[in-house]
Model the fold of this input.
Amino acid sequence: MLVAKRNVLLQLDSDTQPSVFDSVVAIDSGADELLRHGGVEPIDVRPLVHGAIFTRGGEELRHTAIFIGGTDVATGEVLLREVLDSFIGPLRVSVMLDANGANTTAAAAVLTASRHVKVSGSRFLVLGATGPVGQRVVRLLAAEGASVRVASRDIQRARSVCQQIESRHPEAVLEAVETSSPDQTEDALRGVEAVIAAGAAGVQLVPEPMRTCAEGLKLAIDLNAVPPAGLEGVEPTDKAVERQGQVCYGAIGVGGLKMKIHRAAIGRLFESNDQVLDAEEIFALGRRLVEA
Done:
């Protein structure tokens, strides 16, 4: 008797304890079985992947997939490379990288911005742009044709991010800016249509008077849900709330779309065995959801 194949998700997490959040989302998104591995290092990846690809074949391979999580995004990127290097020709399964929620959060932020400003040709400021989410926000904005100020308290780190993204998107219009003082932050805000704050949790990046006085600023998105707000005066629950003539979103306001994208991406993994879902692919999937 033929038994319908169950969808198995191999969860590779660089943290000691695999993320419960990611596990619950996976179950709600079509994974019938979870193989949860914590403390995963690059040397561990190959035997785990081979266990996934050698047990099924042909059409059955689409019922196995890999999710890479953990709070360390740089390690997640290394694990992704190891996973891809472990595949053998057609013996492969689909894989998704969303360490620290960086890819789904960045996709949701840029898609949210696109509801209110035309991204192509517009000027954006990304605060905390050298962090994992900030880098991906810059990357997606650049690919969409925006002009982006890449802000950091360390100008060398900002320049390094610009160089990395320009190597991926040579047409990118990027400007590294330093925001280690209030005057520098005020200068960075000057002339931009939208600001996306992707700084560390609980760190205020822009005081409310500076934000509200920024001439021409139409949209403010704060991805920090931990007080104090990254953009003072923007509440975590704000969702297209107008404040002093600016459309404002907080982390929870963006979070609904982020979760929708996350769930759809997990479900997508089981449609075929040859997908690699990184920032750009997750963004494209999110766009289809928004446009549907």
About this structure: Residues 251-269 form the longest helix (19 residues). DSSP finds ten helices and twelve strands in the chain. The two ends are 39 Å apart (CA to CA). The longest strand covers residues 8-13.
